[in-house]
Design brief:
Layout (H helix, E strand, L loop, with lengths): L1 H14 L1 H8 L6 H11 L12 H17 L2 E2 L5 E7 L12 E11 L9 E8 L5 E5 L2 E3 L3 H21 L5 E7 L7 H13 L3 E8 L13 E3 L7 H9 L4 E2 L2 H5 L8 H8 L3 E5 L21 H18 L13
Parallel strand pairs: 4-7, 4-8, 8-11, 9-10
Antiparallel strand pairs: 1-3, 2-3, 3-7, 5-6, 9-11
Helix pairs in contact: 3-5, 3-10, 4-5, 5-10, 6-9, 7-10
Length: 329
């Protein structure tokens, strides 16, 4: 009997180990995987990922495959959230006022807590760009590496992390938006659609925009649009135990809070929805330029930013109560 008891104890102790190891294993996002994502999305083959083009369709297919391989499920029947709009900003006048078919790509990772899983965190970035830009030495393709293959790579990296860790009590929605360059049309569509559901409980949204190169002479690593409007920056710094997020005065001066895909969600749900960026108007010369190429990205920096933000997202996904809020609420 003593021998059997010892064997049962041994089985119980070591039988529990695999699940514990799965939950506690270290996952680090590497510069190589970030480079692979950005290099593909910003390649000439995708021709600048203009909304409605073959290039953006290829980009969406690439994102869908990443989600599927990671085990991140589609939120809708498929990964694609379809919408259409009238093209009032064509480069070719013959395309004026034509209907354009577009789609966001939406993945979903359900939370583990039976109650908290009904509260949703959105991690987003736009994956479209402008297609063509002003020619430079015969090059017309505006590849959109920093704008915004960089942000897209962050969302995919975070999907990799959380799908492997499976430690999020709240549910996480991973969204890559189309038609941001047409006036935030993809995020306007999806935010309205989710709002109409009536029971969609959005806790917060963290959006990623142009994080491909570091800022200079700053005490912080990234800035947050709408910094002064909520406690999100304070909480991110608290959760990461670093001075990761700061205030960029130009972001406030140019009202960047209203100029990226976070804003339609804030409008629809009146919660803290904000954008992380490192483009400070002085550190990158190729905004909407044909030289916005992968070769200009600092992949080590990007991986460092993503790895530093992970503990913040992880904490957001697991606190017993919602801790991030807009001031004045």
């Amino acid at each position: 009997m003593k021998k059997i008891a010892i064997m049962l104890l041994f089985t119980f102790i070591f039988g529990c180990k695999p699940a514990q190891r799965e939950n506690s294993k270290t996952i680090t996002i590497t510069s190589e995987e970030i480079k692979e994502t950005v290099s593909y999305l910003a390649s000439d083959d995708l021709k600048g990922r203009n909304t409605g083009s073959e290039g953006i369709d290829a980009a969406a297919t690439y994102i869908e495959k990443q989600f599927k391989d990671l085990g991140v499920k589609p939120y809708f029947e498929t990964y694609r959230d379809h919408f259409q709009f009238t093209n009032t900003r064509p480069k070719d006048v013959s395309e004026m006022n034509k209907e354009v078919k577009a789609f966001n790509v939406v993945g979903f990772l359900e939370g583990s807590d039976p109650v908290l899983k009904n509260e949703i965190i959105i991690l987003g970035a736009h994956y479209d760009h402008i297609g063509e830009g002003k020619a430079v030495e015969g090059d017309l393709i505006a590849n959109g590496a920093n704008d915004n293959a960089a942000g897209t790579s962050a969302v995919l990296a975070l999907a990799k992390y959380f799908s492997a860790k499976k430690n999020n009590k709240r549910s996480i929605m991973f969204v890559l938006f189309s038609a941001e360059e047409k006036g935030l049309l993809g995020s306007k569509h999806l935010s309205s659609l989710l709002r109409e559901k009536g029971n969609f409980d959005l806790y917060t949204m963290v959006n990623f925009e142009m994080i491909g190169v570091p800022m200079k002479d700053k005490e912080y690593t990234v800035y947050l649009s709408g910094y002064e409007l909520s406690n999100m920056a304070e909480k991110i710094n608290e959760y990461t135990k670093t001075k990761l997020v700061g205030l960029l005065p130009k972001a406030k001066a140019f009202n960047l809070f209203k100029r990226s895909d976070n804003y339609p969600f804030h409008n629809a749900f009146s919660v803290a929805c904000q954008t992380i960026s490192t483009f400070d108007f002085t550190n990158y010369d190729y905004y909407h330029h044909v030289d916005d190429e992968a070769e200009h990205m600092d992949f080590n920096f990007m991986a460092n930013v993503i790895n530093k933000i992970i503990p913040a997202i992880e904490t957001m996904a697991n606190t017993p109560e919602k801790e991030i809020y807009m001031y004045g609420e």
